[in-house]
Write a structure and sequence with these properties.
10 helices; about 210 residues; globular; five-stranded parallel sheet; alpha/beta; 5 strands; Rossmann fold; 2 domains
Length: about 210
């Protein structure tokens, strides 16, 4: 396990204790089925959201951290002061961003799930560097209309592929106008690759 992944263990353990073990096991099976189908289905109830954190958050964290470290190598002078993460879930990409770029003093997540909003707030509270600098707002990811201000870094991890192409276009336009650097992370599947290539082509055309 990555050193920074170990820092997630106390957070995951603390929220898992709030749920019945058998309920978590059943929820973990349900979310596995939801994420292995042809399309991802929304999570339901706190048990499924906690099971997501326990089962999928560490791998998502590792993939996002790798992408951000690559960005740091490609643009070694990049020192963002702010980051916006869309579809922030439990705060995975915000955590990865602040570990990669200690210069970040403001982090904002946009999330449509009330359960993930609550869990992300718990994550922020458990990590001193995030407690005073990170926040999350609940918003409809299909619209991209409830975020104010501009950001040095914008991230989207395992999110755009779950949205309609029209919504993807809205967020790409948002990124072009109101962020300096955009980092996209998608699953290593044919669908994930196609989503990334579509977004890449749109951004290059602009």
């Amino acid at each position: 396990m990555h050193t920074y992944s170990r820092l997630l263990v106390p957070f995951i353990t603390s929220i898992a204790r709030e749920c019945d073990v058998r309920a978590l096991d059943a929820a973990a099976l349900r979310i596995h089925q939801k994420y292995t189908g042809s399309s991802v289905r929304p999570l339901e109830g706190m048990a499924e959201h906690v099971a997501y954190v326990a089962c999928r958050m560490p791998a998502t964290f590792a993939a996002t951290l790798q992408a951000l470290n690559h960005l740091k190598q490609v643009i070694p002078t990049f020192a963002p002061a702010s980051v916006l993460d869309i579809g922030t879930g439990p705060g995975t990409a915000l955590y990865s961003s602040m570990l990669t770029f200690p210069t970040i003093g403001r982090g904002l997540g946009v999330e449509r799930s009330a359960e993930f909003c609550a869990l992300s707030e718990q994550l922020f509270a458990s990590i001193p560097s995030m407690a005073s600098s990170c926040s999350v707002i609940r918003g409809d990811l299909e619209r991209a209309g409830n975020v104010e201000g501009s950001f040095d870094l914008m991230t989207s991890a395992y999110v755009l592929g779950e949205l309609s192409e029209k919504s993807q276009d809205r967020w790409l336009a948002f990124a072009k106008e109101r962020s300096k650097v955009l980092v996209l992370v998608e699953p290593g599947t044919p669908a994930g690759w196609q989503c990334l290539m579509r977004c890449r082509d749109i951004l290059l055309s602009q």
